[in-house]
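Task 17 of the worksheet. Students: predict the tertiary structure of the chain below and write it out as structure tokens. Keep your answer in the requested format; marks are given for formatting as well as content.
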Amino acid sequence: MRLFSLLRLAAQAESLRWRRTGRGVAIQAALGAAAAVFGLMLLVMLHVAALIWLADGRSGTSAALIVAGVDLVIAAVLGWLAARHAEDPIQVEAQRVRDDALRQVGDTASRAMVLAPLLRSRSAKKGLIGAAVTAAVVGFIAKR
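Model answer:
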């Protein structure tokens, strides 16, 4: 009974972890898309305004290069905002709960494997030998 509740807990924690991971990716994608749209609209307006303003005192080439430099700074800032990755504390906790539950499942299963030959055997002597062999095998596997 405890084994099934631990497996259910691990599945719920994994489900929560995947939902939170998906939520984080969706938020990052939405922020990146919004930044791209906003950046395009802003750049169009900045280009028009800057070229008109800069063309009065300079040549058209130098005005265009100044606008391109500003574009580069804006693109770098928006790209940095879209690319940064912050860990979700609920996702990290769900992963820890899942790992703990799966470790406990492994402990419970190994105990059951040790006791199973003892319970299935018709004679106590054969059951003890089977339990000892099983315990040795489980101990060897657990060390790996």
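Marker's comment: The chain has two domains: 1-84, 88-143. The CA atoms of residues 20 and 63 lie 46 Å apart.
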